[in-house]
Write a structure and sequence with these properties.
Helix content is 44%, strand content 12%. The chain is of the alpha+beta class and 81 residues long.
């Protein structure tokens, strides 16, 4: 699924819609998940989630985590191809 606004930015209403969709799908699958996310301004949520627990990443950790992301993405691409 793809959703966007005029500026192609993530905004709070898109974030909340996405969370609700994922929460509903997890409820149908009878699964609970923990979702880590950064402290972006659009990630402020006021929706009630039943099967998702949201946890902020610590501030200023992007530079520390980024190399890990690169390895995961590279491995995924290698296995996908």
């Amino acid at each position: 699924m793809y959703e966007a606004n005029r500026n192609a930015w993530m905004v709070s209403d898109l974030w909340n819609k996405r969370l609700l969709k994922v929460d509903r799908s997890m409820k149908l699958l009878n699964r609970n998940i923990l979702l880590f996310y950064d402290n972006c301004a659009s990630h402020k949520t006021d929706v009630k989630l039943t099967n998702i627990k949201l946890t902020f990443l610590p501030p200023n950790t992007t530079s520390l985590i980024q190399p890990l992301d690169m390895v995961i993405i590279a491995n995924f691409k290698r296995h996908y191809k």
